[in-house]
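Hi V.,

You were right to ask for the full record rather than a summary. Here it is.
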Amino acid sequence: QVQLLESGGGLVQAGGSLRLSCATSGRSFQDAVMGWFRQIPGKEREFVGAIKWIDSIDYYANYADAVKGRFTISRDNAKTTVYLQMNSLKPEDTAMYYCAAAFSITYVTLSSQYEYWGQGTQVTVSS
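Predicted structure:
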């Protein structure tokens, strides 16, 4: 069974950091575009960032302007877990964060183009 499982969310003060994890299973996601989205109740899912590895070292990455310079996507050496490192967190970063994957994609910022989704992990940033 193909699965994306997020973890690492929680409550943090403004200015703090969190690292979210997205553990993949059921198939290899080494060649997929891995994306992170977030959503608050009543709003549409918002693009946070996405990455596509070319090889073990090189990659393409795209981040939303709201998180650029603060958030970074990476993965472990086994290439089964993707991380979202979030630094300098702000109250407006409070949301449910979702990991997503796609093997055929045109616009990495569009949630509708992702095939696989995790269940989400809540991030709350207090002021």
